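Example 3.2
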Amino acid sequence: MTSLKSAAQELRGAAAALAESRGLQPDALPCRSDALLLLAAAALKAVEADAAGAANVVAAAREARRLLRPHLPRPQQPEAETAAAAAGRKRARATAEDAEDADLGQYSHAHAFDGDARRRAKFARLMGGGKGEESHHNTFAADASTVKRINGELEEQFNTALSHHGKKGLGA
């Protein structure tokens, strides 16, 4: 049997450790609800760790702690960090605009991206074209005239193959 007082002291220590692990000062929480949330999370974690508990109680405590996790307090970010994060987002948008200049290698003359800068930027990012490296490929993607010529030759070969009725074997 344990006393309520000893369980409360143990819970207080666990909540303080949880606050410190989240980067908070346990003695200087901004509001009472933050302290209560930390205590609840620590209590649920203690129930999970209790080996003598029933499996369904442990599972319920685990699920409750998982649902409570997004509501736990986090340390306040200084304005300088949030401004830097906003600048990072602006930088990411700027790189999407710079993808127009990205080296697409053999695909730079393909007409798949005509008029769609966003698709071109995504393709450049996925293929590594935005890293400033030159393409090392010696093959080339076909442009519209080459595709038309290849399709014509393929259709001609198909029609020739259809005209060979009943000829079998090599060299027929």
